[in-house]
Amino acid sequence: MLVLLLPLLLLLLLLLLMLLLLLLLLLLLLLLLLLLLLLLLLLLLLLLLILILILVLLLLLLLLLLLLLLLLLLLLLLLLLLLLLLLLLLLLLLLLLLLLLLLLLLLLLLLLLLLLLLLLLLLPQPPPPPLLLLLLLLTPPPPPPLLLLLLQLLLLLLLLLLLLLLLLLLLLLLLLLLL
Known about the structure:
mainly alpha
């Protein structure tokens, strides 16, 4: 009986060993699959990280470009403002020069009038008759003639114009110093 059971027992043992080996193989396969899945997940995570880094770098580059464009625009605006200021200063200088020229013309006209009046005063007049001389000596001195008053007024005007010219020259010098 024992002799008959021994081969059966051996067969059973062999079957059990085979099953164990199969189970071990299956476990190994499962472990390998898990490792492969983990590696794939890691690769995917790395790819995602690389993509995120690339996106961030692109955004930073765009921001830098925008900042550079803004700086260029600001520089252009500043240059335009400086040009406008220079043009305004040039216009002011031209206006002051025109005023100076006008005042010089007025001065020349007044000087011509003064010269004419002086020539009129210095023209030789006919001597008065003796009777008129006596009358002039006996009568009180008359008020100053109109020509003298006009001369005084013209002299005052000339002085005022000279003062204005001096003031304008001072203003021009100040503007040139500021430039």
